Amino acid sequence: MISDAYSTDIKLIQVMDTDGKIDDSLLPKNINDDKILEMYRMMLYARNFDAKVLSLQRQGRAVTYAPLIGEEATQIGSAMAMRSNDIFVPSFRQHAVFIARGMPLDLIFLYWRGYEEGNIIPQNVKGYPVIVPVSTQLPHASGIAFAQKYLKTGSAVVTYVGDGGTSEGDFYETMNFAGVWDAPLVLIIENNQWAISVPRSKQTMAQTLAQKAIAAGINAVQVDGNDVLAVYKATQDAITKSQSGPTVIECVTYRMSLHTTADDPTKYRSDSEVEAWKVKDPILRVRKYLASKGIIDEKIDKEIIEAQTAEIDAAVEKAEQFKPDPSAMFTNVYSFMPQVLQNELDNAKTSNFWV
Amino acid sequence: MQMNMVSALNSAMDIAMKENDKVVLLGEDIAKDGGVFRVTDGLLEKYGSGRVIDTPLAESGIAGTSIGMALSGLHPIAEMQFAGFMFLAFSQIINHASRYRSRTRSSMSVPVIIRTPVSGGVKTLEHHSDSPEAYYSHIGGLIVVEPSNPYDAKGLMLKAVHMNDPVVFLEPTKLYRLFKQDVPEESYEVEIGKANKMREGDALTVITYGTMVPVVNDVVKSSNLDADIIDLRTINPLDERTILESVKKTGRVAIVHEASLSFGVGAEISAMIAEKAMFDLQAPIVRIASPSLPYPFPGYENYYVPNAQKVAQGLDRLMKA
Ligand SMILES: Cc1ncc(C[n+]2csc(CCOP(=O)(O)OP(=O)(O)O)c2C)c(N)n1
Ligand SMILES: [Mg+2]
Q1: Which of B30, B37, B81 for a ligand 1 pocket mutation test, highest count of atoms within 8 Å of Cβ?
Q2: At the topology level of CATH, where does B196-320 sit?
Q3: Are strands A157-162 and A185-191 parallel, antiparallel or unpaired?
Q4: In this predicted complex, what is the ipTM?
Q5: Which of A17, B39, B199, B226 sits at a 20 to 30 Å CA gap from B216?
Q6: How confident is the model over A180-199, as pLDDT tens digits?
Q7: CA triplet B69, B74, B79: central angle to 5 degrees?
Q8: What is the pTM of this model?
Q9: Domain B2-182 top-level CATH class
């Protein structure tokens, strides 16, 4: 006898299509046009910020930087669905999540200018620092989610990983731990189709990345990651459910630019592929919607961007005034100062090779 | 032919793949992209995707499957994109690559090369500037090499691929394109376990490797020091003979490395000299290294990595002692 041991399917959710048309049956109840305008502003803000760091990097005023252009809806939609007491655990490309959660812009710049001080995250932001080794932040997120349950805070934890990152062992271990612990975790897969030069199709034979969650026995859904409303809805639903267990949300989006400023995509992908994604741009469709409603026009758009640019420029100026004190390398290694390290610090200060 | 370290390593792997069809390359972004530093550039076009393999993003998987290939008669050359990410493969390397031979009393072996860029000085993000040589040397069973110039890079790579051992092959990022050198186009080997006496002198011995080699060289030249400079090239197994011969001649020793000071390669060499040549020393051994803390973010890098001034001060202290 052979019977079905298990079967499943993965849903794909889109709320707003590329023409800016909304499927009202799916629109979350707390979403109105003001909220959509706010999402639009935040996505523009993120894109503006991104362009700024990119240009600073080209002038030698920032270190290697990972642009987010194209992925604004995934980041803003999920960040705005978080409640004020929810916590986020980013990877290295989630600048828009930091922005939406109120991280001071000058600190974000400071990080990308190469200073640990940019990781001093204000309490109210409720986030953790940029983590570079792919997927290694994910088990922390499960642990943080466990702690929320243990401490009865009621907070959910939202964490992020790329499509490439779903190949790492830590990714599977995270889902499994969160599953057996019923931890309030929302794991967002920011599937931008590329892991540096390796396309999604070479990363795994699985048809969707969301279905990887099925093996861990936890909730799974796929959304149009360029649809800010779909990402918002899926994240909100997952947070609502989080007290009874974790959810994985695969956001299907696209990396419109370089992997990082050290990368040359012409080596491995065609311009036509990038072009084809332009029509699915996450900001464009919201602009179409808001314009059709008479909420924005070119003039208002311009005003929004100008105001944001002024804020961004001020933050850059502030970050560029930061003067590093090399002693900070020594005084932040342990909760106390070991004699060995103190000697090394004294020695560094007296010899004067810190030019 | 004039080659930098990138083209020298590329040439070595090209030769290795041509002469032995059991050699395969695998890693993240090594095929289509040619590696993020272009070390494997052009090899996909030459040898095809069956032998030059872009893997999924999983370091433990890369190391573990390489070990399996090596156990089955292949000779994989695996790339870890950066040394900081190689720690995700640490279990496979430490628990298996280093132990398969001893575990099976040499009835099995793991001929694998694991290459990775190491060390800093080029203002990269966190985890892109680690100097992990001490970790891999400590376990035993792993050969650990670190060339400081294109000639040695090619010769050590070809030697490694002709051996039947696991080799951790550390490539200083900063030296990848820093300078070119005349490098033979054909195959040649640089002996593993043999240091390079770069310069002869009688007054002191400076032992170094990797990114610190050009720094030491410049300081010794500009300060007109009568120094033996020893570039280790192989960190494990250590070339004790070359070191001790020099120490017995000069009586003064400095060890210079970029990796942090405490529990490092300098400590091992100092201990070895203390055990075997203590009474030949005229002054305490001087270690010059980065401070005993994690590699900082790029904004602090210049305060962390030993610079010429720090090396010069250390050597001065040694000569005045
Ligand atoms: C453990 C680890 N391995 C390798 C790298 C180098 N690296 C940085 S990003 C990246 C690709 C990540 O792809 P993906 O997870 O899809 O995220 P994306 O960059 O597309 O946002 C790689 C290989 C790293 N940072 N960490
Ligand atoms: Mg990706």
Answers
A1: B81
A2: Rossmann fold (3.40.50)
A3: parallel
A4: 0.97
A5: B39
A6: 999 999 999 999 999 999 99
A7: 70
A8: 0.98
A9: alpha beta
